[in-house]
Write a structure and sequence with these properties.
With about 140 residues, the protein is of the alpha+beta class. The protein is built from seven helices and four strands, in the order βααβααβααβα. The chain has one domain: 2-Layer Sandwich (Alpha-Beta Plaits).
Length: about 140
């Protein structure tokens, strides 16, 4: 069993895609074990994207993630990390296959609707960052 973190970014929340994205996750038989709507503090977002600190898009992606509420989801299941990454599609929506969240609903890398943990180490760090109180299950 793996647990992974998904963020529904401000664009996804504004476009009323919380239900659509969560439904896809549940229908895949992955379990939601943490769920919150938050106005993320800048320091949380900067810590979340620390690996991208030197990249030119670091400032703009942090601005975007703090521009409105985000949904943080903790999701558990067999191979959940890889399964969720595949369901969300390629980071650049133009490369995302139809049938994925980005392939169906996004057009721009700056507004690619979701973030999901890349590997077990990232998942552990990101779950601790977004759910410091721990998970309910
Ligand atoms: P995410 O999976 O949240 O991780 C970093 C985010 O930075 C990425 O999705 C994109 O939304 C954003 N981003 C903007 N430009 C780029 C880029 N050139 N390469 C990767 N990510 C980018």
């Amino acid at each position: 069993m793996e647990t992974t973190l998904i963020l529904i970014k401000p664009g996804g929340v504004q476009r009323n895609l919380i239900g659509e994205i969560t439904t896809r996750i549940e229908r895949r038989n992955l379990k939601v074990v943490g769920l919150k709507l938050v106005n993320a503090p800048r320091e949380t977002v900067e810590a979340h994207y620390a690996e991208h600190k030197e990249r030119p898009f670091f400032g703009s992606v942090c601005d975007y993630l703090t521009s409105g509420p985000v949904v943080a989801l903790a999701v558990r299941g067999e191979n959940a990390i890889k399964a969720i990454r595949a369901m969300m599609g390629a980071t650049n929506p133009l490369d995302a296959t139809p049938g994925t969240v980005r392939g169906d609903f996004a057009l721009s890398i700056d507004d690619n609707l979701t973030h999901s943990s890349s590997d077990p180490e990232a998942a552990a760090n990101e779950l601790a960052l977004w759910f410091p109180e721990g998970l309910v299950a």
